[in-house]
Each structure stands twice: as structure tokens, then as C-alpha cells.
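Late entry, evening session. Most of the bench is empty. Finally got around to the prediction I had been postponing all week. Sequence below, unchanged from the version circulated by S.P.
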Amino acid sequence: MANPLKPAQRTKIPRQHMVEQEAATRRANFTEVNLGFGFDLAKQEALRCLECAKPACVDGCPVGVKVKEFIQLVLDEKYLEAAAKVREDNVLPAVTGRVCPQEDQCEGACVMGKKFGAVGIGYLERFVADYELKSGKIGLPPIAPPTGKKVAIIGSGPAGLSCAGDLIQKGHKVRVMEALHEIGGVLIYGIPEFRLPKDIVRQEVENMKRMGVEFETDVVVGQTVTVDELLGEEGYDAVLVATGAGLPNFLNIPGENLCGVYSSNEFLTRVNLMKAYRPGEFDTPVFDCRGKRVAVVGGGNTAMDGIRCAMRLGAAKATLIYRRSEAEMPARIEEVKHAKEEGVEFMTLTNPVEFLGDEKGWLKAARCVKMQLMAPGEDGRRRVSTIKGSEHEIPLDMVIVAVGTSGNPLVQATTPDLKTTDHGYIAAEEETLKTSKRGVFAAGDIVTGGATVILAMGAGRKAARAIDAYLRTSQW
């Protein structure tokens, strides 16, 4: 049906809020925080769409989801058709509906956002994706006749999965290779259960299997097999490297080798892949947080994930230490809000300079300094400087270092003709994502450095277009 409300009437409907678990309850469990829209909330939110002639929200989406069209289908109560419409451009709608920073992308471009609050595009995407998954009637896109071409995708994170989904629709044979024992990359090992349930990722992967994508786990490309072997005796016509930025950065300060100091990568991988989020069921080598003083260093989504996991594992005190102010934090506003509600203490304009240990080599405190904001640098971010004489100690039993990541070096180390940047990432053409090696493309965090799930998916789609063109023309 057509929207029964005139544009002026639509602006008077407030943005609908998603129901959440109460903070006091959720801080003690790993069940999903956001509980999703029901039919009534979804209908009300869909009514707010102004149906712009030139929808800026589509331009704001890295994968180009047809927002206006799928919201119209929600209004028509054609929820399966709405999910299928999203799936035309996004093979992981139930994932991105949960973890995509819509406020910076599709919703950030929504004209309603200027005065009335952006349409809840992410909430509606999650609603139709969840409806589809619960119905079991997945609207898989059509698959073209086989081309006889084979593509190997190294890495099963967002970039690899997105590329695989597009290439399989073009009729190419696609095999995704994952180094770990479960498919999903950062979606599985990096994002906690309370933000993205593992079963959601597994269901989306099953949908891709139904499309024809092949998956193989425990394949460490660079050790188990090389890129040259994939292009040679393995018979692949093209290779996409989508290994992500899985190498943790550290602070490079004294004491980082003490027991009780984790990188965020290690901590979250142990919590997620080794199932510490199901306490009592698995013997998992994660530091026992119960009754302990735990801190995370950093201000991004990964930092929020780490400290909120520690709290759920029983930390008596959970502190976030960040060297800039809260206004400069790269984490999503929603994640900051949730962390505060759950009792995380924010210690901003503070920076560790040394971790202190006891006689047995266990962390006992962090020596920190206070910081002050300076003028922005070339990247637009405020610089900071140390306030002299501000050293102080914070008693701690455990710390999680979440200050960014670097490119996984395995593929580059065993592919000598694959050019890299000064920071160790793979050098790839901006538009085609071609590398210096014929037949090899690269996409996602291994090219750009750590970014969002949806930006990696957008890069995967771009790579798929370039790979398809290469397979059809053989032009490099």
C-alpha cells in the first residue's frame, strides 16, 4: 500500500526505540542486549520514511541496499519480499542489522535526521532479516549458469563472505578458506554474543552454502597452501585475499608481558571461539575475572566489547582508559551508552605508561598519566600531550589492550611478488582492488586497516565486480 500519511504527518512520528534488556540483568549474561522490533514498531518506523525521489540513504550504504524499496515492502507487510530485496545487495542482513554503524552511513545520510531523527533503517533491516530467518523461507537470489571459472577466497570475514555471495550469483565456483575452525572471521571470533549471536552468523553462512558457496576451515594460507599453489596446481583462476587486520597492536610500554595483560584479539577470541560466554559449560583458558579489577585501554567498539565481556565474566570493577576525551571516541554511541548503563567506569584523558607486576609476574597496577587535548592533526583528530607531574597508579588485576590492529602477515610473507604498503597491508588499486600479482585481488581490512563490517562488505562487493570482469575478459 502507499504510505497513507503526508510528509508533514510523517515527521511528527518519533523515531521508535528498540526494546532492550535491563542493564542490571544483561550485565550478568551474554544474551543479546537489543531485542528487536515487533510488527507494530516496525510499521510505525516504516511510516516515517519520506520516500525521497533520490534517496541519499542508498548512497550512504557501502553495499548499496535499496532502502526505499525494502521499507515500502515493510509497509505492505510483505516481510519476506523485503528481506529478499535487502539480500539482493547484502548477503548478511541479520548481521549488518545488528552491528553496522548506520548512524554514520545510511541513517547519517537520511534527510529526516536533520530535524526529526533518521529513519531506523538498521532496525528495520534487522526486523525483516530476523523474520525471514525465523520463517525458514530464505529469499536466495538467482544463480547464473556455471562459467567454469574457480575463485579462491582467503578469509571468511565480512569482505570474503560478501565477495563470495556476489561471485556465486555470477555463476563462478567459489571456495572460501578459513584459518580457524569456524566460518565467520571477526563476526565469530571478534564480536561478542550479546551484540551478535553466533547462531545468526551460522544461519547466514548456511544460506550461502545453499547458494553454492563452498567453505573449508583449518586452512592457513601461507602455511597449509600458498597463493602460488592455489593459482597453479590447485587450478584457481583468481584469488581474493581477505585475511583482515588480525595482528594486534600494543602500547610498547614496560610490563606488557606480565600475566594478566591481554591483547583484545586474544581475549575476545578466547571468549568467543572457546565459548567463555557459556560459563560452566566449557573449560576455557581465560583469566578468571570474578571479583577482579579489570581495565581496557582504548576507545573503539573493540574496547567496549572487551570490557563489557569482562564485566559479564564477573569483574568487580570494570574501567575504560582512553587517552582522548569521550567526544573523540570512535566507538558507536549506542555501545558507549550500553557500557555506561552496565556500570563501566570511563577514565578519559588518561594514558598508561607502564604496567606494574608483583614478584610472581602478575599484573598489579597500571602507572598512568593525565593527558590534554591539542589542535587536530592532518587526519582531523585532536592530538594529545602529557600533563607534567600527573603520574598516578591504578590498581588492576587484568588489562585488555585495544589500540588497533595491523594486517595479518602470513600471505604476504609467502608471496614475494605481492606488494605491500609501509604499514604491511596489501597494496591494491582503489577501484579494482587488483594487487601487483596477476589474478590476485585483496579487499577489506588487509588493504585499509581495521574498519567496520559494512565497509569490508562494500570492498568485497567491489572486488567481486572486478574479479568477474577479469574472469570474463582475462584483461589485467
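Two things to note before I forget:
The chain has a mean pLDDT of 94.
Residues 376 and 382 are 4 Å apart (CA to CA).
Will write this up properly tomorrow.
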